[in-house]
Design brief:
The relative contact order is 0.32. It is built from no helices and 11 strands. The chain is mainly β. Strands 2, 4, 5, 6, 9, 10 and 11 form a 7-stranded mixed beta sheet that branches. The chain has a 4-stranded antiparallel beta sheet with strand order 1-3-8-7, with no helix packed on it. It is globular, with a radius of gyration of 13 Å. A hairpin with a 4-residue loop joins strand 7 and strand 8. Helices cover about 0% and strands about 55% of the residues.
Length: about 120
């Protein structure tokens, strides 16, 4: 049972990156899926969340710039990040949400995104 992120890297401000998260060992669409990010010394922040009913939530700081999507056939979660800003620099994690409790029960190892000016 695991989540493995990929696609992080370094990019200049205004650029784009696409993060991927491969899920294995569990029923991918049994609960919600989400992307979080963390900066050293700050609390982990919700970036985007796909709920079990298909609704999508974005953090205020990424609305209009980031797009979350998932491919149930491939057990993949994606985060398309456009018009990146220096403040988007963080470690990005994907996570799986338990359908019944709503808690985030499985986390990936994280992928670093660095945006330079």
């Amino acid at each position: 049972v695991q989540l493995v992120e990929s696609g992080g890297g370094s990019v200049q401000a205004g650029g784009s990156l696409r993060l991927s998260c491969a899920a294995s060992g569990f029923s991918f669409n049994s609960g919600g899926m989400g992307w979080f990010r963390e900066v050293l010394g700050k609390e982990r922040e919700l970036v985007s969340h796909i709920l079990t009913n298909g609704a999508v939530i974005y953090g205020d700081s990424v609305k209009g710039r980031f797009t979350i999507s998932q491919d149930d056939d491939k057990n993949m979660l994606y985060l398309q990040m456009n018009n990146l800003k220096t403040e988007d620099t963080a470690v990005y994690y994907c996570a799986a949400e338990d359908y019944y409790s709503g808690s985030w029960w499985l986390w990936g190892q994280g992928t670093q995104v660095t945006v330079s000016s």
